[in-house]
């Protein structure tokens, strides 16, 4: 075995440490080609500040050899040793020390100081760094990244003016296995917690930014996400504030077009999303179609389904006006029943999943507010920016566009979508789904397959 092989054994110990919740550092001691001691970080579990991987491995080697002097031994460790461990290595009279990743904060083998290069000490140990350094460093950086994310999830205090749906409401939802991600430090959020799905590699060649509408949430994209990630792409699907796993302000009047748009702009900027295919439907389009003009270089494509631009200078569709009237008269409408009525192929559990975020009236402020927020007159909030967006899509959009239309949609159906098609430069003949209604993503497998092929051209 060579140095890389022995470092591989140390990496196994480091991974075991990570699984135990310890900082992932592992070490092995080798005597004439034979492993005589192994160790992994254990200060937390052992309640011992000296239980670093190197110390544990040195103790095991000394016991195995029956001697605290380890003159003919070599130690392999995944991270540059600290002062304590370096001192123990020198006292044990190790012949050689090999480490993986450097430690710029506490490394005592050259990064911060170099104990092994101290000529006044009565023993000299040869030291070599950089063996499988990339793997060792990636293990550490991944561990700390995950820990920071966990700390962020646990450090989102609930604002007094908001509610948070109990997590058990989301337990066991069919077809929704993804880990939650949260942000609360965007300037516009002012401490509100925003949930999003983030699946696939961060450096993927394409990112699908999937925006939902009212009264849906990111659950709406459960049939499309697996196909996008199977293609090697990244998928980011936020829950708008007031929906899904995101916080829910108590007052209907909290919500406004411009505020929700600003949150989405900050969200895209924070995640530094690039090579984006914008995926929109319903309010996902009302808001989402106004985003690319703010940062055109981030967007390569548009997948647009049953939505519109509410510019205030063209009448809203009769179907939408009927929907808005129904919401005003029946503000506590049954969300699950709404989905079941237009999607006979959905199971009762799937329909119920759309009700999960809204256990009572207090959690439904966004559902009551959003229908009235759609701009109808030229001076309404959101109308001017929607007109700017229409100009962008007509004259400046340079990306690819795929349109899919659920033809059974009584609210934003084919007539509305054909008008939108004329406003999007380069938008070809739509993909028509005669069996799909307003929530066209419930037929999302076909759309996702077509989209993967289309945007790969």
Helix content: 25-40%
How many DSSP helices?
15
Q: Strand order, main sheet: write it out.
A: 7-8-10-9-12-13-14-15
In angstroms, what is the radius of gyration?
A: 29 Å
Written overview of the protein:
- By secondary structure, the chain is an alpha/beta fold.
- 35% of the residues lie in helices and 16% in strands.
- It has helices spanning 3-19, 43-46, 53-65, 83-91, 133-154, 225-230, 257-271, 283-288, 318-329, 335-342, 348-353, 365-373, 383-395, 414-422, 444-455, and strands at 26-31, 34-40, 73-79, 96-101, 126-128, 162-163, 181-183, 194-199, 207-211, 234-238, 248-249, 276-281, 299-305, 400-406, 431-433.
- The strands form three sheets. An eight-stranded mixed sheet has the order 7-8-10-9-12-13-14-15, with helices on both faces. Strands 2-1-3-4-5 form a five-stranded mixed sheet.
- The mean pLDDT is 96.
Descriptive labels:
single chain, 457 residues, alpha/beta, eight-stranded mixed sheet, five-stranded mixed sheet, 15 helices
Quick gist of this model?
This protein has 457 residues and is of the alpha/beta class. Helices cover 35% and strands 16% of the residues. The strands form 3 sheets. An 8-stranded mixed sheet has the order 7-8-10-9-12-13-14-15, sandwiched between helices. A 5-stranded mixed sheet has the order 2-1-3-4-5.
Summarize the topology:
Blueprint: H1 3-19, E1 26-31, E2 34-40, H2 43-46, H3 53-65, E3 73-79, H4 83-91, E4 96-101, E5 126-128, H5 133-154, E6 162-163, E7 181-183, E8 194-199, E9 207-211, H6 225-230, E10 234-238, E11 248-249, H7 257-271, E12 276-281, H8 283-288, E13 299-305, H9 318-329, H10 335-342, H11 348-353, H12 365-373, H13 383-395, E14 400-406, H14 414-422, E15 431-433, H15 444-455
Parallel strand pairs: 3-4, 4-5, 9-10, 9-12, 12-13, 13-14, 14-15
Antiparallel strand pairs: 1-2, 1-3, 6-11, 7-8, 8-10
């Amino acid at each position: 075995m060579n140095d890389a092989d022995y470092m591989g054994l140390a990496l196994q110990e480091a991974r075991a440490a990570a699984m135990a919740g310890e900082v992932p550092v592992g070490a092995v001691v080798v005597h004439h080609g034979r492993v005589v001691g192994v160790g992994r970080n254990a200060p937390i579990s052992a309640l011992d500040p000296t239980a670093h991987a190197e110390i544990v491995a040195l103790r095991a080697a000394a016991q195995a050899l029956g001697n605290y002097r380890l003159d003919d031994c070599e130690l392999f460790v995944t991270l540059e040793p600290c002062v304590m461990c370096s001192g123990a290595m020198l006292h044990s009279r190790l012949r050689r020390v090999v480490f993986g990743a450097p430690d710029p904060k506490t490394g005592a083998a050259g990064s911060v100081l170099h104990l092994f290069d101290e000529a006044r000490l009565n023993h000299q140990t040869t030291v070599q760094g950089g063996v499988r350094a990339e793997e060792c460093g990636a293990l550490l950086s991944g561990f700390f990244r995950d820990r920071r994310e966990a700390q962020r999830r646990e450090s989102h205090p609930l604002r007094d003016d908001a509610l948070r749906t109990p997590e058990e409401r989301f337990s066991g939802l069919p077809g929704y296995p993804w880990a939650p991600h949260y942000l609360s430090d965007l300037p516009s959020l002012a401490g509100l917690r925003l949930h999003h799905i983030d699946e696939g590699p961060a450096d993927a060649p394409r990112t699908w930014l999937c925006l939902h509408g009212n009264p849906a949430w990111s659950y709406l994209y459960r049939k499309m996400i697996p196909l996008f990630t199977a293609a090697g792409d990244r998928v980011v699907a936020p829950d708008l504030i007031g929906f899904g796993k995101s916080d829910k302000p108590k007052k209907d009047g909290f919500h406004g077009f411009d505020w929700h748009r600003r949150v989405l702009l900050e969200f895209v900027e924070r995640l530094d999303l690039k090579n984006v295919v914008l995926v929109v439907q319903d309010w996902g389009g009302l808001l989402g179609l106004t985003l690319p003009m703010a940062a055109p270089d981030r967007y390569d494509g548009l997948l647009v389904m049953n939505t519109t631009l509410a510019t205030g200078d063209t009448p809203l569709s009769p179907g939408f006006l009927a929907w808005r009237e129904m919401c005003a008269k029946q503000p506590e409408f049954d969300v699950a029943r709404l989905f079941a009525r237009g999607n006979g192929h959905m199971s009762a559990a799937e329909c119920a999943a759309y009700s999960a975020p809204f256990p009572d009236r207090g959690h439904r402020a966004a559902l009551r507010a959003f229908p009235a927020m759609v701009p109808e007159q030229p001076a309404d909030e959101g109308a001017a920016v929607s007109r700017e967006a229409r100009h962008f899509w007509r004259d400046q959009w340079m990306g690819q566009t795929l349109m899919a239309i659920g033809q059974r949609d009584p609210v934003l159906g084919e007539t509305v979508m054909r008008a939108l098609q004329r406003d999007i430069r380069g938008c070809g003949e739509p993909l028509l789904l005669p069996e799909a209604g307003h929530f066209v993503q419930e037929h999302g497998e076909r759309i996702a397959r077509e989209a993967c092929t289309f945007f790969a051209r």
